[in-house]
Amino acid sequence: MEERSIISEFYKMDNQTPFEYTPFELFGDIHLITLGIILSVSLIFSFTARKYYDKNTFAGFEKILGYLLIITELIKPFFLVEFGDYHFTNTVPLHLCHITSYATGLFLLTRDTRFFDFAYFWGMGGGTMALLTPDVEFTFPHIDFISLFSSHGLVFFTIIYILVVIRQYVTFSSLINAVKYALMALPFVYVLNLIIGGEEGYKANLWYLMERSEGASLMDFFPVFFQNPPFHMLIVIPLSIVIFLFLYLPFYLFEKK
User: Fold this and answer.
1) Euclidean distance between CA atoms 213 and 179, whole angstroms
2) Which of 53, 114, 116, 154 has CA 20 to 30 A from 99's CA?
3) pTM, entire model
4) Other C-beta atoms within 10 Å of 18: how many?
């Protein structure tokens, strides 16, 4: 009990903790090093594994990776509430990044391409943006920093693995499915935010439908009117589609070639 309280105090962000965290610096040394590690590990592992890939040989590894993606997101709320400044109301694991992790894991476990349709576009689109412009206040070893980069980094690693090693292909129908599934779920997620509610500062904000992300993002370049919910969706939806088109472009060019 005493040990847990010491660890908990280490992670708390209040003014009483003796540990002072360093504010996060966008594209600072730690941020760039972390991005470099995620990118290099993903590419080196995947292009090396591609030379020796056999579906039966790698089946066990892919199952472990699939379950890890899903289980990690399900237990993360308990870890954040215990060691961070969170309530269960603002840690419900149904953000787009969580669903992307589930979809990526389920693809490895089932090989159902519909899961990868969602995982590729939202993982490489929204997930990569989260890595580049993370919504965190403090840098490593703060729990928010570790949680965000470990989970998003794992998704990025797995998607690269699926593309390079398994050689899963992406079509224009994949893009349509990714947009369609998200738009179908949008109204339900909004209602879910209202149902969950929460205290001030800990309110549910799934898919950032109630409040925009506090971190830097492309939204910063748009007029203030379009930066605040619900009007930000007028920018977010078409912007996401444009990003998805760029993500599909390499596959389109390959088809034409």
Assistant:
1) 21
2) 53
3) 0.87
4) 6
Whether the CB-CB separation of 232 and 186 falls below 8 Å is answered with no
CA 16, CA 245: separation in Å to the nearest integer? 48
User: Is 212 strand, coil or helix?
Assistant: coil
Cβ atoms 84, 144 nearer than 8 A = yes
In the three-class reduction of DSSP (H, G, I as helix; E, B as strand; rest coil), residue 95 is classed as: coil
d(CA 165, CA 45): 9
Handedness of CA 179, 89, 101, 242 (dihedral sign): positive
Question: Per-residue pLDDT tens for 120-132?
Answer: 999 999 889 899 9
Contact 86, 74 (CB under 8 A): no
- What is the C-alpha to C-alpha distance for residues 49 and 205, in angstroms, rounded to an integer? 39
- Contact call for residues 211 and 205 (beta carbons, < 8 A): yes
Token reading at 40:
């290099």
Give phi and psi for 138, each to the nearest 5.
Answer: -125, 155
Judged against a pLDDT cut of 90, whether residue 201 lies above it is answered with no
Give dist(CA 131, CA 127) in Å, integer: 6
The DSSP element (H or E) to which 21 belongs, if any, is none
Nearest to 67 by CA among 144, 181, 154, 160: 154
Query: What is the C-alpha radius of gyration for the chain, rounded to an integer number of angstroms?
Result: 19
| pLDDT tens-digit readout, 134-155 | 988 899 989 999 999 999 999 9
| Cα distance between residue 171 and residue 54, in whole Å | 24
